[in-house]
Structures are given as structure tokens and as C-alpha cells.
Amino acid sequence: MILLKVPILGDIIDFIALLMGYIMQALFFITGGFNIGLCIILFTIIVRLIMMPMTIKQQRFSKLSSMMQPELMAVQNKYKGKNDTASMQKMQMETKAVYEKYGTSPTGGCLQMFIQLPIFYGIFAVVRDIPAYVPRVKAMFEPIITAITGVTNYSQVLIDSGLTTSTYETEDALLKFLNAFSADQWDTLQNAFASYGNGIADTIAQQSEKILHVNNFFGINLATAPGFKLSLALLIPLFAGLTQWLSVKLMQTNNPANDDENNTAAQSMKMMNTMMPIISAVFCISMPSGLGLYWIMGSVVQCVQQIFINKYMDKVDVEKLIAKNMEKVNKKRAKQGLPPKKIDTSAVTNYEESVQRKEEEIARRGERAKEIKESTEYYNQNAKPGSLASKANMVKMYNEKNSKN
């Protein structure tokens, strides 16, 4: 009997990172090894396009979720405060019935997120440690590593230079350490080994110049973290937060349920979406700028994708979407020997009515805002808004207006 090893999450991430590494290698070769920043931009575009089908599926589930939300909230309100076993079971059954009516399930959007998570970690590993996945970049470090490790007590030299407090016994560990060097750190390393001869200092100077050149992106070293010091690199976390905010705003426009003030789940999601741009900015301050560039490009590509997805989702026939879901459900039911379920047309009707109510509410708010503006302008005539004269003028005009009426 042959036993098959089930890969754990770490193995899956390593495998995905290896595949992503091949893409990065190909891009570095195609661009002639000119610049890592350019490779990251092209890499981000390609990866986002590959993941686009999953993004569309997730958006479809979001659209159905916004349609189901009023009915799910009605079920929750119906059993609010009832914690007995019978009531809880009825609530679960009625909730399940709502999902079945729309041909989906509570975990309908989880699969896409579950698939995307290891992909993200795989991409993260590649962009964070490019030399480990791109041989042509690694080749720039190898002469330095060979020269340094040729010194018997090289670990102690590194510690004495103030560059580190740790020892690096393997070449891979030393490669990862050197990959995050700034121009000043390369100078310090060169000076630390200057007295050991054998051309070690010259090798460090020559190779570090090449490394800094490929890592330079409009004056920003993509291998180093921006940190909290004032520098051009701070533009990376700034743009990361801004582009993330734009991306979130575009996603919210396609889900009207996010504006429902009575929907606790929607408000929690709205709060989380507000925090995400801030988290992105903080994240990019402490991580290599190359990761920040990937984060920015990911958000930019997602914004462009979202514009087209929003237009596509606006044209999606709700009835056909539910019918397609029901077709999948009935295939599963057929395998289980169960009769097919019919499409509940009330699902479409309820959604259309909720959209109409939302549009009417927005129109009412617009009319109310217009009335307030016109009233304010009327009472502030010939006086500076907020001044004592405007308040006196407001009382006077109010009295005149009501006396005429």
C-alpha cells in the first residue's frame, strides 16, 4: 500500500513561491536585468491577471450577499433575544433556507479567500527575498559571499563592524542578510574587510555598485525599509495607503449593503475597510520598499480591475446569476439522489425592491440637503455666514417671512 503525503500549508506556500519565482526569473531575463522595480511592476500585473477569475467570483458572492442581507437581518430580528434550543434551530433552518433560495451558502466566498491566502504568502516570500528566487540577482552577491567567507573569523568581523549581533553560518543566511543592505551598510562592510587583502574590499565595492543599481527605483533602494526617518522612501507607505483606500472605495460602490446603518456586519466591514489603508501604510514602513511597491501596484491594478468589474456586475442579470447557482446546487443534489430545487422568483423581486428603496432614500437625502442649503443661503444674505450679523439677519428675515405667510 502506497501512502500519499498530504502537503501542509507551509509546503503549499513554498510550492507557490517557487512558481512565482519562475515568473520573476523570466521577467528579469526579458528586461535584461535592468531594474528590479520594473520586474516587480510587471510581476504584479501578471499575478493580478491570473487571479482575476477568483476576484470576479468573490464579487458575485458579494452581490448575492447584498441581496440576501435584508432577509437574513429579518430572520435575526425575528429570533432576537430567543436563546432556547428550539428557537436557535428554527433560526438556523430559516437562515439556511434564505441561502438556498439564492443558490449559495454561508461559505460561498470563503473558498476564493482561502485559495488567495497561500498565493499572497508565496508572492510575499518572492518579493521579500528576490535573490533566493532569481539566479541572476543571486549571482551578484556570490563573489561577495565567497570573498567574505574566505576570512576565517568573518562572523566576528561583521559583529565588530556594528552591522549585526548575529552569526551567519550558511551562505543562504548571509545572502538574506546582505540583501537588505543600504549604501551606507555596504560602505561599512567594505571598510570592515579592507585590511584583510586579497581584493575583498574591491570585490565588495564593485558588486555592491551593481546591486544598488538594480535595486534603485527613482532614488529608492527597494531592498531596504523606509523606516520612520525623513526620506524619499516614505512615499512608498504613503502611496500604499492612498491606493489601498481608493481600491476599498471602488469595492464598496459595488455593494450597497455597506451603506446600511442598521446592518452590524456591514458596519464592521466598513470599519475594517477604513483601517486597511492605515495598516497598509504602517506595514510598508517596516518592510522592504520592494514589498511596498508590490503593494502599491497591486492596489492600482485592483482599482483598474474593479472599475471594469463594477461595470460588469451592474449588467449582470440577477435572475441568471441565481439560476446558474441553482444549477450547481441541483447537480450536487442529483448526485445525492435528491430532487432538484426550483428558483424562488421572490429573491429577484426582493432585491429589486431593496435597490429601489435605497435609491429613493438617497434621493430624499439629496432633496433635504438641497433645502437646507437654500435655506441657509436665504438667511445669510448680505452677511458673513456664522457672524453675529448673519444671526440677527436670520431672525429678522424669519419673522418677515412668517408674517407674510
Task: Walk me through what this model shows.
By secondary structure, the protein is an all-alpha fold. It has a domain at 345-404. It is built from 16 helices and two strands. It has a two-stranded antiparallel sheet. A hairpin with a 2-residue loop joins strand 1 (216-217) and strand 2 (220-221). Helix 6 (135-149) packs across helix 8, helix 11 (235-253) runs parallel beside helix 13 and helix 12 (264-286) runs antiparallel to helix 13 (289-315).
CA radius of gyration is 30 Å
Number of discrete helical segments: 16
Major β-sheet, in short?
Answer: 2 strands, antiparallel
- How do the strands line up in the largest sheet? 1-2
Beta-strand segment tally: 2
Terminal CA distance reads 96 Å
Task: Sum this structure up briefly.
The chain is mostly helical and 405 residues long.
What labels would you give this structure?
mainly alpha; disordered N terminus; 2 strands; 405 residues; two-stranded antiparallel sheet
Reconstruct the topology from this structure.
Blueprint: H1 9-30, H2 36-50, H3 52-78, H4 85-101, H5 110-128, H6 135-149, H7 154-160, H8 171-179, H9 183-192, H10 200-215, E1 216-217, E2 220-221, H11 235-253, H12 264-286, H13 289-315, H14 318-335, H15 346-379, H16 388-404
Antiparallel strand pairs: 1-2
Helix pairs in contact: 1-2, 1-5, 2-13, 3-4, 3-15, 6-8, 6-10, 9-10, 11-12, 11-13, 12-13
